[in-house]
Amino acid sequence: MGEYLVRWLHGKHALRPSTHAAYAIHVRRYLAPHLGHLLLTDLTPEDIEQMYRALSTDPPLPEAAGGLRPASVLSPSSLQRIHATLMSALSTAVRRGLINRNPAATIELPRPTRPRVRTWNSEEVARFLRAISGDELCVLYRLLAVTGLRRGEAVALRWGDVDLNSGALGVERSAVRTGNQIHLGPPKSVHGVRTVALDDETARQLHWHATRQHLTAVRGQRPTDAARPDQDATATPDAATPDAATPDAATPHAVDGAERLVFPGQDGAVLDPAYVSRYFDRLIRRHGLPRIRLHDLRHTSASLGLEAGESLLEVSRRLGHSSIVITADVYSHVSPVVAKEASERLANLLDRAPRTPDRSPAASAPLLRRRQGDPRAAGPVLRELGGGGAEGPR
Q: For 72-76, 105-109, 360-364, which range has the lowest pLDDT when averaged over its residues?
């Protein structure tokens, strides 16, 4: 089983670098130590359940090096991710005819509880943006708050992806850090490739950001070194990416304008996504704002958009979710507010609708009967008195 897992992992060439790294950790740290001694054909659901019981009650086996966090009991969400890796490996074995059925398919794991989404309100976002208005990354954080981009999508943006005249940007790639390398690749899913609208103020700030970046490049200075001295120097772009193809291509002077990064790191290379998160933490502590993660700024953008009247479908497309179901599930906490406002808008629409004559067949029937001398056209009191413009019944 251990040898098969290694061969299976080596054959997963189509995975994103971050996904491949996660699979490798799952195999090395959990699957191989617990199941590696078994034959692939002898693996049973009971063996897999025993592994999960051990992982959920006892800390994983320690590793000698690698800068890993201290071993601890795994959460249900961690078990689900490990199980997804094992399911993929065994499904491949079934397709290749190595085993008849997937023994992991019948395993039931505890459902993870979704953590409560923490967001800022509009006043807190505005306060944050005002507080960092002089910071070199202020435009980046505004872009994240307004558009809901993922941090990797934002740092991978090139000026060729941005159209300030029409007020839109195209998301075509994302930066992911694995180990000490930053890889550039497609977004998280096919729906991640999208066009996102820009408001006028964000477009204006991006224009001034481009102007400052150009002036800095003309002066021969590196725009990010002085402002962000704690940038992780060990994070280097993947050698296969266009931004690091040659030493000269790493500088703003040697890169074509359309290929130049909107938010470059040191020497014009890709800004480390992890640094963007760390720097965000430092800024909110410095300015006394409620603690949220950088990813929660994406949640904030979606929540405020829904509360402002943006439809669930529009938010889902703006965020690049693979399904509107994901958007509805993640932002269900906003639904009561949105539902209340929607019901009020609907009621106002109905209450303020102008009154028009009822021209339905049922409403026009009495008038037609009166014209034809039908006694049924008279009201009940007139019929009782024998009136109504026609001779009453005998």
A: 360-364
